[in-house]
Predict the structure.
Amino acid sequence: MNEFLIGLRDWITAIHVIAVIAWMGGMLYLPRLYVYHTQVEPGSAQSELFKVMERRLLRAIINPAMAVAFVFGIILLAGPGVIEWGVGWIWVKLAAVLGMGAVHGFYARWRRDFAADLNKRSERFYRAWNEVPTVLMIVIVIMVIVRPF
């Protein structure tokens, strides 16, 4: 099995990176939709359009991309000789990935609030949360590429 995974490592990595890019694209766009959604009247035609856009983005792109990124990331972690578990960068990276998963969960919960016309958060709140995935992404990329410790 290990030799099989070694032979497919480049393909597994490619699929993982593609999924991460799709996930991040959605994670960066969804809170922008929330910012715009706060600017329209609940129940209006614009609000209903935002609800459709938010639901489709989350269910058709963000959720599947996250699942694929996690599955192929775990496969990479399980591969022989890929990770030296005694170094610090992998633990920081994994913590940032778990943080990204938590942010994903918050975004999903907030989408349900908008869908039910129950949003109580401000435009400024969503503008701030729009930056969180960017910061986590920077940490993750630096840990994987630079491996500073």
